[in-house]
Amino acid sequence: MLQVKQVAKAFSGFQAIARANLTVTKGQVTAVIGPNGAGKSTLFNLITGHLRPDKGQILFKGEEIGGLPPHAICRKGVARSFQLINIFPQLNTFENVQVAVLARYRQSNKLFTPARKLVVEETNEVLNKLDLYPYRERLCNALSYGDQKVLELAIALGNQPEILLLDEPTAGMSPEETRTIVKLIKNLVQNEGLTILLTEHDMDLVFDVAERLMVLHQGQTIAEGPPDEVRRDKAVQNAYLGETG
Ligand code: ADP
Ligand code: MG
Q1: Averaged pLDDT score across all residues of the chain
Q2: Of ligand 1's atoms, which has the minimum distance to the CA of residue 36?
Q3: Theoretical Cys-Cys bridge with 82: which of 38, 86, 222, 227, CB 3.0 to 4.6 Å?
Q4: Are residues 55 and 219 in contact, defined by beta-carbon separation less than 8 angstroms?
């Protein structure tokens, strides 16, 4: 579904991504792991069009998307959840998701269909998938941190993506909130056929949820494959897993 080939990105001479390679298979959870500063968020910004690659290719379903603007990439089916910045705190939970669903209808020229009803149905569907329906009328200011993070997922799903990118989806969460997110991620993949690419610090979580790993170290892909294989990789142990136990 997604292929990153030999991608490079420098910031004023600093090579943040030197040679990144990644293959994401449809219907799987793939995790990009690596120490702080390895380039994980930069790689996500390259995939979603928030940065332009200097070199290499980014293919989504075989089509080059590297360097396209973010809205064009999003429209093709690549969505990411932003850390809280996409939430309108003065709107309620329903309205926040509805904004995302509406934006998609506007883009797809479905103005002549009975859009209002469809948007309401679809918004409710997304809320149900993420167990947020009971909070639909709650102002987002009044949601717990964990529920706000789930709402971010809901807003991203409002775009009806084929692949969802989550940059440290459980950052700052309590163990219980983390378990909730993990359950939702697994549900989305198993029941909705969604493809997920995530970065994550918590290795237990990574090995629990990911079916494929890519290890980034100083901007370079040093290993890629099934978790058990990557765990045994000597270069990975030296560069990363060894350090963190
Ligand atoms: P990670 O997400 O793996 O922690 P990042 O992708 O955020 O790593 O950062 C990788 C490196 O690139 C870091 O050294 C960071 O300081 C640098 N970097 C990230 N974004 C920028 C930017 N916009 N300008 C300059 N340097 C950046
Ligand atoms: Mg990061």
Answers
A1: 91
A2: 4
A3: 86
A4: no
